[in-house]
Specification:
Elements: E1 8-9, E2 16-17, E3 27-36, E4 39-47, E5 53-60, E6 67-68, H1 83-86, E7 89-98, E8 103-112, E9 115-123, E10 130-134, E11 140-145, E12 154-160, E13 170-175, E14 182-188, E15 198-201, E16 206-208, E17 211-222, E18 225-235, E19 243-246, H2 257-260, E20 268-276, E21 279-286, E22 290-297, H3 298-305
Antiparallel strand pairs: 1-22, 2-22, 3-4, 4-5, 5-6, 7-8, 8-9, 9-10, 11-12, 12-13, 13-14, 15-17, 16-17, 17-18, 18-19, 20-21, 21-22
The structure holds beta-D-mannopyranose.
Length: 316
Amino acid sequence: MKVLHPFKRFHGNPVLSRDDIPYWCNTVFNAAACKFGNRYLLLLRVEDLNGHSHLTLARSHDGYHFEVDREPWITPSEDPGYEIYERYGIEDPRITYVPEDETWYITYTAFGPHGPRVGIGKTRDFESFERIALITEVPNKDAVLFPGKIDGNYVILDRPGGFAGSTGAIWIQYSPDLVYWGGARALLAPQPGWGKSKLGSSVPPLKTDEGWLVFYHGVRETPSGRIYRVGAMLLDLKDPEKIIGYTPNFIFGPEELYERVGDVPNVVFPCGAIIEDGIIKMYYGAADTAIALAEASLDDILGLCRLAKSRETHAR
Ligand code: BMA
């Protein structure tokens, strides 16, 4: 059976909003997610009263009710190699566990006077955090690391461009050491329709029997502003440059009031997902103002990805 709307929103949404942050801030949104031991962790993007973002941890025993740390965890770096690039904040984190390194990697958007670029760092304990490198030039954001090397290389999806008329496509790149990246190729470019203006990967690729499952956001410009929605595609496990299926339509979009109304209206923006017992928990920023949760069955999502096998409509 085809399921048109595979995600069900958590009845207690939003999961976190400004009132849950134990210090002054403007908003909380766009959180990375992972399971660390038996705890669910969210790495929150918190926007301060100056409009600059930093990252703060929230912890949960059930994935639905979170307690936020009293202090920020990762703040913009004062190291001279980073300072100018993070001067206006660090945004939209994604967390990937790489088993062969026994390490959790965190990618984020560093934002400074030159524009947005991608940073990557690592942790093993969610206490200490070490920056590895700034890995792209500007403008680039929405970088998600695959959870393991493929053919000896780390693999990342990122989104160069998307500003001043450039396409805003999802690209793929490779690295032997997480510092030097190359072999860049365009993977998925915007098409007329719900993702016409730009695309960006949402959550790090999830390994399934049928391929790498990638949620991505698509942006449509309208006379009353942008609408951010979510689609999914499947990439070949051995050659992730091959799109082997995708959802022909968006599968999640702003509908509830907390997604429609906020600092930036009509935005759902996932940065983290956790799969347990065939159920995907997707955490998403709602209207750049709160964090919400929706759940779907993995089978339903894979079924929707099987609907379109051709790559023809996805210009590269
Ligand atoms: C994107 C990113 C996200 C944000 C979205 C909607 O470009 O900056 O952080 O949620 O815009 O404002």
